[in-house]
């Protein structure tokens, strides 16, 4: 067995807290969260055990995709504040011994970025080749068609679903894998890459400590931009990730980024890598010998309750999931290429997914909600890798109610999907009113909007998020479920997270130990052992609301040497395991450590 590493780099031991700035805290009453609001909550975060803040984009942006559409990479959107506010926030973060990570969104810019405005002017403009322009194709009847059949990820409607937008001015199409307002940059052009290295250096030289890199695995597209295979024959445009994810030059570009920028600083880097199920593909970004990124966000767990169309998950439809699938995913990644230095980024929530307690736990009563949120905290924090907590996750925040109508779903991805299904059904019904309740069921479970409602700070109006009118409706449970209540309550979900993060810090086995699963075939219980040198941790989790008696079996474990460290029913030192038998209550979770 490997000896405990004593010299893990800071980004491996760190707890990262993701802030969705528009919904975190509003300091000036305009209904929009801002940098000064974040700066005023640093003590709350420090107290929770956070080491690094990751800010979702705060750059100048028309907010077509909530800031993942940037019109000036070197400025702060005035709704969030100023560069001076950012410097001030950074100072507060550093003074508390924490670090600050920015979101780097460079697969695409906004169409309102000066680069794109120049690029579209005429086809001899020096910035023309900074984006991906192609002439039309013509069908047999002479009608103009996009250069290929790729579908945009946030497709607008059945007919308007192409990843290409025609631009009258120069009679060519530009590529946008996401919204028409998010044109893809042409990474094959070295000037584009240099511009990206420069904007990264701008933030690093200002004191930023790292980057989360948005959809970084789609920056290199397949040679010749070939048509995608037809997986949904009734639609004109097709899922094309096989031609744009993990493309031919992506590793070359990331190595160049590493050599020219990353290696010159002491940073945390995490790449977002959707559309990928092949573990080998993802390893390539992370293995230290390749000199690319520290880690990636893979989406195996996030896609577990989504049906597939071709290779691509359809995120807004709910598909029931099985515990055995969840176990397979966790085990696969926890044991993946450890000997080659693969390192995990562990998360169960972010701004693109609904609340974990509503997906993987039970939010039907306050009691089950608190129990299952704590059980899920155990699932996450006891996994090896760097920990990522999304704002409000530490409070057990849940999805907003099914009774809210489509008008409360502000996300363009939700809106576009709704409109696509609505127009399809309306045309099928010949214009008669159609039933959309099943779509709303899916949204109530899965939409990104649930993660984007205002943070719940206290029981005052608008959950203490703003004194004005919040940009998005506040969830209805804030009078009970809020940070202030939970900070005061030693049995709260937040108190549990706080203890757990501290336990992780004190026990390196939880960060870097190996991983062996027990009772694999059990449908309710997920149990695993982590070891590092002579340190041992045993985790047992009940994923249902019924009591379960479980007999664990492990030839190498001495049950009597294990002591309960933390649980969501019992206190430290209680419920010893005599002979490997445990009586687990509904959604019970326990962590035992070797004594
Ligand atoms: C990433 C972001 C998501 C955004 C998309 C397009 O997946 O996390 O919020 O919509 O990229 O930029
Ligand atoms: Ca504000």
Automatic annotation (TrEMBL):
Domain Glycosyl hydrolase family 13 catalytic: residue ranges: 18-452
UniProt-listed Pfam families: Alpha-amylase
Database matches in CDD domains: AmyAc_SI_OligoGlu_DGase (cd11333)
Record keywords: Glycosidase, Hydrolase, Maltose metabolism
GO biological process: maltose catabolic process; sucrose catabolic process
Keyword Zinc-finger: no
Alphabetized GO MF terms: alpha-amylase activity; glucan 1,4-alpha-maltotriohydrolase activity; oligo-1,6-glucosidase activity; sucrose alpha-glucosidase activity
Family to which the UniProt record says this protein belongs: Belongs to the glycosyl hydrolase 13 family.
Protein name: Glycosyl hydrolase family 13 catalytic domain-containing protein
Natural source organism: Candolleomyces aberdarensis
């Amino acid at each position: 067995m490997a000896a405990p590493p004593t010299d893990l780099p800071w980004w491996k031991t760190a707890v990262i807290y993701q802030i969705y700035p528009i919904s975190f805290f509003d300091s000036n009453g305009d209904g929009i969260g801002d940098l000064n609001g974040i700066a005023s909550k640093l003590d709350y975060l420090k107290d929770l055990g956070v080491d690094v803040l990751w800010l979702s984009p705060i750059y100048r942006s028309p907010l077509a995709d909530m800031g993942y559409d940037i019109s000036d990479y070197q400025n702060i959107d005035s709704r969030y504040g100023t560069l001076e506010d950012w410097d001030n926030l950074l100072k507060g973060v550093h003074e508390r011994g924490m670090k600050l990570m920015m979101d780097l969104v460079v697969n695409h810019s906004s169409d309102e970025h000066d680069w794109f405005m120049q690029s579209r002017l005429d086809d001899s403009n020096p910035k023309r080749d900074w984006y991906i322009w192609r002439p039309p194709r013509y069908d047999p009847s002479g009608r103009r068609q996009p250069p290929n059949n790729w579908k945009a990820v946030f497709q607008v409607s059945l007919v308007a679903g192409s990843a290409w937008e025609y631009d009258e001015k120069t009679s060519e199409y530009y590529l946008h894998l996401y919204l028409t307002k998010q044109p893809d940059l042409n990474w094959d052009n070295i000037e584009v890459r240099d511009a990206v290295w420069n904007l990264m250096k701008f933030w690093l030289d200002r004191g930023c400590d790292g980057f989360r890199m948005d959809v970084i695995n789609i920056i290199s597209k397949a040679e010749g931009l070939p048509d995608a295979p037809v997986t949904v024959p009734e639609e004109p445009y097709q899922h094309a990730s096989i031609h744009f994810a993990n493309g031919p030059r992506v590793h070359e570009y990331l190595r160049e980024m590493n050599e020219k920028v990353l290696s010159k600083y002491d940073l945390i880097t995490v790449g977002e890598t959707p559309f990928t199920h092949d573990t080998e593909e993802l390893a390539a970004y992370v293995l230290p010998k390749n000199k690319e990124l520290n880690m990636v966000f893979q989406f195996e767990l996030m896609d577990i309750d989504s049906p597939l169309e071709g290779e691509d998950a359809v995120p807004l439809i709910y598909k029931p999931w099985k515990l055995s699938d969840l176990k397979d995913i966790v085990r696969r990644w926890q044991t993946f290429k450890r000997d080659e230095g693969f390192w995990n980024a562990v998360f169960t929530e972010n701004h693109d997914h609904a609340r974990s307690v509503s997906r993987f736990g039970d939010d039907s009563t306050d009691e089950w909600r608190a129990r299952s949120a704590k059980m899920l905290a155990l699932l996450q924090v006891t996994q090896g890798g760097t920990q990522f907590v999304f704002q409000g996750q530490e409070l057990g925040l849940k999805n907003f109610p099914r009774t809210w109508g489509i008008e409360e779903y502000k996300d363009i991805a939700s809106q576009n999907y709704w409109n696509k299904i609505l127009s399809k059904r309306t045309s099928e019904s010949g214009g008669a009113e159609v039933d959309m309740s099943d779509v709303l069921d899916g949204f109530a479970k899965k939409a990104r909007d649930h993660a984007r409602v205002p943070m719940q700070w206290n029981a005052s109006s608008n959950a203490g998020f703003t004194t004005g009118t919040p940009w998005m409706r506040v969830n209805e449970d804030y009078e009970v479920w809020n940070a202030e209540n939970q900070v005061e309550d030693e049995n709260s979900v937040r108190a549990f997270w706080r203890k757990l993060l501290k336990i992780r810090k004190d026990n390196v086995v939880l960060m870097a130990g190996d991983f062996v699963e027990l009772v694999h075939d059990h449908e309710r219980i997920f149990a695993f052992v982590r070891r590092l040198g002579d340190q041992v941790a045993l985790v047992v989790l009940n994923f249902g609301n019924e009591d379960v008696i479980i007999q664990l079996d492990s030839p190498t474990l001495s049950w009597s040497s294990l002591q309960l460290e933390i649980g969501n029913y019992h206190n430290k030192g209680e419920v010893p395991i005599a002979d490997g038998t445990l009586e687990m209550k509904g959604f019970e979770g326990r962590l035992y450590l070797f004594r």
